[in-house]
Amino acid sequence: MENNFFIKKVILLCLLLSQMNAAEYYKKVVLASFVNETRAEAKFSKLQNIIESKIQKQKEEYPFSVVVRPSGNKYIIAVEPFKSYEEAKKVLSALKSSFPTAFINNNAQVVDNNIEVIQDMTILKVKEEVKEVDKTVVVKEKPELKSEVNKVSNPYSLERMLNELIYTDPEIKERLFQYNSIVEEIDISDAGYYPTVDFIGKLGEKRSEKEQPDDSITKDTYGTSELTLRVVQNLFNGFGTQAAVNRDEARAKAAFNKYIEVAQDKMYRAIEAYIKVIRYKEVLEIAKSNVKIHEETLVKIEDRYEKGFSTLSEVERVKGRLALSKSNYVSETNNLIDAKFNFHKALGRNVDETRLVMPEFNGNIPKSLEHATDIAIHKNPSILVANHDIKVLQESLQYSRKNDYPTLDLELEGSRYNNLNGSSDANEDDLSAMLVLNYNLYSGGAHRAEKQKYISLLNYEYAHKNKLKRDVIEALGLSWSANKMIEEQYKYQLEYRDLTAKTKAAYDEEFQLGRRTLIDLLDVQDEVNNIKIKVIHNSYDLLFSKYRIIDAMGELYQSFGHEFKEDYKKDAVLAYVDQDGDKILNTEDQCDNSATPETNIYGCEGINCIQVNEIKFNTELKDQENQLDTTGIQNLWGVKN
User: Fold this and answer.
1) Least confident range of 129-143, 332-346, 483-497, 587-601
2) Residue 564, helix vs strand vs coil
3) Which of 111, 313, 395, 634 has the most crowded Cβ, counting Cβ within 10 A?
4) Is the pLDDT of residue 210 over 80?
5) Among the listed ranges 47-61, 397-411, 442-456, 571-585, which one has the minimum average pLDDT value?
6) SS (H, E, C) 61-88
7) Is 50 exceeded by the pLDDT of residue 588?
């Protein structure tokens, strides 16, 4: 009997594997994907004739259809099925001009994810049953199926998000390009140490008129040319070149630290967005559980009412609390959606919130606030930018003082003049070497005013740096205090949560015995729900307060292993930019940082924005013939039906 059972299971397993192997050869060309069925159908109606006309020739060779159908949690417009990749490739080539984002996929691997998971689970179930019959039998899973399931459940860590953000965020790249441009200005200023070489060529025709002794006028027209080579080397300009180079080097340092400042700020905002999504995802689960509890309570109270153990007012009371719990659920859903939009702004694309994992804090927080403040004063990027801005103005002031000195240039010039006056012997060569001194004696007070301007700007930067220092000290102090207070508060909230849960259990028993009213039961349920949500919020507030501390210290990016180096690279001219390689320009791409080039027509991986479907609940209310009359109360409070 056992042998027959074993043989049947093995045969079933072989059939499943053979079906899945065959499914791998089931190809399709995906043209577009949508989350909303109505939108998919509408788009299909508009595009069907276009698609059919472009693949009419291929349709005569291969039996395929143009369809719109569900695929997992999406709706796709596709051309299918194809037995070979070559068949699908020919159709894709015909459609590529009108559908540049179309691609070929295996049905078993990508489209029918739900079927794949069910098949995979079936294999695991068969494996367990086979092992019960004979422990020596080992059934191997298809590695392709396992990898696909793992890919769907692949966690997206905070570290991974920040690694992407550093190289793709437009504000960070904006600062990097600005730094690169200022580095080039150093070379512009440095050119003052080198001579200038100019070549001047003149070629043309001259016309002259000469009055003769007999008062007649002789006119003459002749061709002439001039060639000049001039070399000018500045020997002294009041130390202006050196000051200009020092100024631009300080500007480059300031721009580089501004790049770090923006990068750290974007990392900080991204961490906040990442934590918010996880936070509100958990809160939403609590709100959902609260709705379910109130639904169950309503069923029990309605049963008690039918048996005469409860009143109609209690039924209406529970209905009201249930409506409130649903309202709270909708509110928390909105909070999660807001968090997901913030996440999209930070990363440039959407990520399934189920893939996000609780981050582990790896930063080093000093033991004392004084030590942390000292680090912040010396390492906070904003203060470092201010330090280099001061250096820029110091060198700008020095540059303005060059006007107090004369300039001295060495000029070397050689010229050849051909046919100067129209005669054959009117050719001339000139060579000159001259020292040229230029000393401005009066400029209407402009030079003095320029120096005074930089003195005032320098004092402004000193005051600005002092203000930044106070801002950093305040931000760090608030973050430090918040961390300590939240940590202390969190302990008591955990204690309150546990005690409230015990109280709730006791109230449930006492309610059954008639010792507690329904109001007591509903109130304690609200307490349990509220404290659960507070504990979730406080746990994430505690985590985020640690990131706030190291952000104020200027060590946020270092805690994730990032290091910024002044490795200058020349930028290429990019008239049209497609950062994620999905063939949709950044200016039109709704998800300009897609993980794969296989996106829909909006540049997103299956979804171009976060769509909100109608929220439906499973509450089934029993019809009450005798509803509680609250008209008088409504009139009293001015409530209109």
Assistant:
1) 129-143
2) coil
3) 111
4) no
5) 571-585
6) HCCCEEEEEEECCEEEEEEEEECCHHHH
7) yes
Coil vs helix vs strand at 352: coil
The answer to whether the Cα torsion of 498, 499, 505, 508 is positive or negative is negative
Element (H, E) at 282: helix 240-306
Report whether 348 contacts 282 (CB < 8 A).
Answer: no
Cα 511 vs. chain centroid, distance in angstroms?
52
DSSP 189-258: HHGGGS-EEEEEEEEEEEEEEEE-TTS-EEEEEEEEEEEEEEEEEEEESTTHHHHHHHHHHHHHHHHHHH
Q: Which amino acid is at 368?
A: S
The 8-class DSSP code of residue 407 comes to: E
| Residues β-bridged to residue 434 | 411
Got the DSSP string for 29-41? EEEEEES-HHHHH
For residue 98 the two structure tokens come to 């009108």
pLDDT of residue 422: 62
The residues, ordered by sequence, that sit 6+ positions from 225 with a Cβ below 8 Å of its Cβ are 201, 202, 203, 204, 417, 418, 419
235-274 tens-digit pLDDT: 999 999 999 999 999 999 999 999 999 999 999 999 999 9
CA distance 92 to 77: 13
Give the amino acid at 16. Answer: L
Average pLDDT of span 20-33:
60
CA 280 to chain CA centroid, nearest Å: 19
- C-alpha–C-alpha distance, residues 269 and 442, integer Å: 54
The pLDDT of residue 73: 63
pTM for the full predicted model: 0.67
Residue type, 219: K
Indicate whether 115 pLDDT > 70: no
Which distant-in-sequence residues (6+ apart) come within 8 Å of 344 by Cβ?
350, 591, 610
Whole-number Å distance between alpha carbons of 166 and 234: 44
Distance of CA 594 to the CA centre of its chain: 10
Could you list the beta-strand ranges (E) of 330-478: 407-418, 428-438
Dist CA 247 CA 192 (whole Å): 14
Helix (H, G, I), strand (E, B) or coil at 103: strand
Query: 185 in the Ramachandran plot: left (φ > 0), alpha (ψ -120 to 50) or beta?
Result: alpha
CATH 3.30.70.1070 fits 2-152, yes or no: yes
> In which element (H, E) is residue 558 found?
helix 556-559
For residue range 385-417, what is the model confidence (pLDDT) as tens digits?
999 999 999 999 999 999 999 999 999 999 998
Cβ atoms < 10 Å from Cβ of 517? 13
DSSP tag of 613: P
Which tokens hold the place of 270? 């991204």
Token representation of residue 440: 């401005």
For 32, phi then psi, to 5°, come to -165, 155
Q: Of 630, 627, 292, 285, which is closest to residue 300 (Cα–Cα)?
A: 292
